[in-house]
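Two folds, back to back.
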Amino acid sequence: MNTHRALLACLCLTLVTGCAPIHPWVKPYEREHLATRVMKWDRDPASTAFMAHVRENREGARGATGAAGGGCGCN
């Protein structure tokens, strides 16, 4: 019985992934409209780089300014 369920699950996954598009939804020439200044995380990269430099010198630490990672957030 478990074998039948496993085969049915594999079949369903195969069918679902078979419906995925081969090419991306956004064409390369359409990406320029998505890359506007409003869509950026940082509106003033020069100011952010300067503040990171100031923070590195003040705290004596470097790095850890990238994207947020995983974890449970217990700290």
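---
second:
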Amino acid sequence: MSVAKFRKYPFIRKLVDNSPILLMNGTDILEDNMMEARVTREDLFSKLRESNVTQFSQIKAVIMETTGDISVLHYKDPEHEIDEVILENVRFK
């Protein structure tokens, strides 16, 4: 029998579901939260690139969702350059 069937009960949901966790607060990377969520800096930077973030200054928050997805909340600034750290460990050919 699947756990999903019992998720309708709050006490079961609390046992099996994760809660969202903040990975970045603005430009601050929250290393302890990343360790708890088992997210590496490479995973984070990959998600930032995927979300079209090119500077840390664009980032409002990065959240590990209960589903395991990473949400990036950011804003756009038309006059910006890419921060090198965003492209860290990216191979160029």
